[in-house]
């Protein structure tokens, strides 16, 4: 399974599980952020079609989506869905991970 699929799966799962089930505080922060973003997405989705246009994102309280709208809208459809927002977040998380530490016994 690719690293992207694993991260995407974790973000998707994290959005569905209660925070008390997560062992790491870092994961709790991600869950809380995704949950808050999902609620803001729903509030900004004025016509309740499950999608946000750029205008809806800018008018709603979803600054993250409005700011990153063009990158989230990878298929250039003019709207974004929660799944696309989650995929974008997973992509950002996957590419922001620090490089693995060198082994203690490794010499330079």
TrEMBL record:
<dbReference type="Pfam" id="PF13202">
    <property type="entry name" value="EF-hand_5"/>
</dbReference>
<protein>
    <submittedName>
        <fullName>EF-hand domain-containing protein</fullName>
    </submittedName>
</protein>
<feature type="domain" description="EF-hand">
    <location>
        <begin position="38"/>
        <end position="56"/>
    </location>
</feature>
<dbReference type="InterPro" id="IPR002048">
    <property type="entry name" value="EF_hand_dom"/>
</dbReference>
<feature type="signal peptide">
    <location>
        <begin position="1"/>
        <end position="23"/>
    </location>
</feature>
<keyword id="KW-0732">Signal</keyword>
<dbReference type="InterPro" id="IPR011992">
    <property type="entry name" value="EF-hand-dom_pair"/>
</dbReference>
